[in-house]
Amino acid sequence: MKKTIDLLIVGGGIAGLWTLAKATDAGFRCLLVEKDALGAGQTVASQGIIHGGLKFALGGKITKATEQIRQMPSIWQQHLNGELSPSLNQTTILSKAHYFVPSSGIDSQLVSFLGSKLAAGFTTKVDIHNLSNDYQRITQKPSLYQLHEWVLDVPSLLTNFKQRYGHLMVKHHFSDDHLIATDNGYVYQLDDLALNTRFVLQAAGTGNDSSVFNSTKKQLRPLHMVMVKGQLPKVFAHFIASGSKPLMTVTSHPLDDETVWYIGGELAESGNKLSSLEQKQKAADWLTKSIPEIHWQQMPMATFRIDRAEAKQLNLFRPDDVFIHNQQGVITGFPTKLAFAPRFADKVLELLKIEKTDKKPQTSENVRNNIQLPEVTIAPTPWESAKWSPLDSNPPN
Ligand SMILES: Cc1cc2nc3c(=O)[nH]c(=O)nc-3n(C[C@H](O)[C@H](O)[C@H](O)COP(=O)(O)OP(=O)(O)OC[C@H]3O[C@@H](n4cnc5c(N)ncnc54)[C@H](O)[C@@H]3O)c2cc1C
Hints:
Helix 1 (14-25) packs parallel to helix 6 (154-165) and helix 1 (14-25) crosses helix 9 (341-355). This protein is of the alpha+beta class. It has helices at 14-25, 64-69, 72-80, 108-114, 133-136, 154-165, 266-270, 276-290, 341-355; strands spanning 2-10, 30-34, 93-95, 98-102, 123-127, 143-147, 151-152, 169-171, 179-182, 185-190, 193-202, 218-230, 237-240, 248-255, 258-264, 300-311, 323-327, 330-334, 389-390. The radius of gyration is 22 Å and the shape is globular. Helices cover 21% and strands 28% of the residues. Strand 10 (185-190) and strand 11 form a beta hairpin. Bound molecules: flavin-adenine dinucleotide.
């Protein structure tokens, strides 16, 4: 059996999903293949923060990264409000703000930076009494700097794409052994179906390995995330000291009747060589320094390892922007951040439009029809599949 489409998308993370939505809306015939579940790579492991850039300017200057990402929160908000397609109005918004929480030894330079003109427009100073009591449980400071960055519940974000575009997705492990170049694109052998496609988009994160794409252009940055659960305050906070990165970036997520603190930042980046037990111990030490009132040693904890997949940079630096590479119709890309997904999809669409054949794109059909492959589900979050244990499993009475 044969079928003809315009774009075969490999990977059901945020990059593949957003591109599927935009390309389908623009009239391209698309099919997305995902080997595990939607979001199964970095997307569902992300903290769901729609960054606006200031976090990346903590060193004291606005960089290229800050400029590029600055527009993202307002674009996302229009999608989340259902004003732009893809509508993301089924998404649970966990918080409409994130806060900088200075540690006690913080240098005055950073505090004055946060109050400076440079940071103006990114932050507002908020009296702690105007925030929920939860914030008074984590700091003695009379006021906090607020970032206007929304934090999303990622599984509910993915649900929007599945509901609207699920008929264009199948569970399948892409392999370029099954991809053959033709005069006007590629044929991909999908079980007993020969799929003719003009373009292939590799949005497979760590799986961007096709021989067409030179895999030396990929870098992996390992993270060792920490999770703590219990009756914790529901806060969204960057704990900052004097460095250019937050010590700990905390997002709060509901799990049964408890709250999970999912912790990234410097703790996760510097902890990649530690064992899980060592990483938990380090987290407990750092948390105790910031919030001594909570008995961290007695809280159930878990750790989670994941690689960030990005375009290769010198010295493993963090890339500034999305990355797209087109080689004869095989497009390989890294959004670099969840927040960059709209920009990533727009850039892929520019390529499709430039390289499009003279044929007018047709309205989306149910491409999955007649393909005997399973539906894709939504991946569980790291805290749903975690193995929990407190550091101190025999707490004193
Ligand atoms: C711990 C962590 C926290 C983060 N927090 C944030 C944040 O708060 N804000 C932010 O903006 N960014 C954040 N990021 C970055 C963000 O998550 C990523 O940039 C983004 O999710 C990457 O999306 P993606 O679609 O390119 O890749 P992925 O989400 O990794 O998706 C790739 C998909 O491709 C599939 N796949 C792989 N190989 C194949 C194959 N051969 N065939 C079929 N399917 C395949 C995988 O199963 C996976 O589902 C975070 C990242 C990490 C790791």
